[in-house]
Amino acid sequence: MQQSSPIDDPAMAAGPLAAIATLPELWRWRVAQSPDHDAYRHCDPDTGRWTRFSWREIDAVVARWRRALAAEDLAPGERIAILMPNGLAHLAMDQATLARGLVPVPMHAVDNADSIAYILADSGARLLLVDSDERWDEIAAVGQALPELKRIISAGPNHGPARSADDRLVSLEAWLGAADAAPPEAPVTVAPHDLAAIVYTSGTTGRPKGVMLSHGNVVANVKAIHQRLTAGIDDLFLSFLPLSHTFERTAGYYYPIAIGACVAYARSVKQLSDDLVQVRPTILVSVPRIYERIYSLVMHHRAMANPLERALVDLTIAIGGRRFDAQHGRGTPLSTFDRPTWPLLQRLVAQKVLARFGGRLKVAVSGGAPIAEPVVRLFLSLGLEVLQGYGMTETSPVVSVNTPDDNDPRTVGRALPGVEVRIGANDELMVRGPSVMLGYWHKPEETARVKEADGWLHTGDQARIDDGRITITGRIKDILVTSTGEKIAPADLETAILTDTLFEQAIVIGENRPFLTAIVVLNAKGWAEQQARLAAHGQRGPEAEAASLLRHIARTVKAYPSYATPKAVHWTLEPWTVQQGLITPTLKNKRPAIERAFAKEIDAIYAKRPAAAQ
Question: Which of 4, 196, 325, 569 is within CB 3.0–4.6 Å of 420 for a Cys-Cys bond?
Answer without folding.
Answer: 4
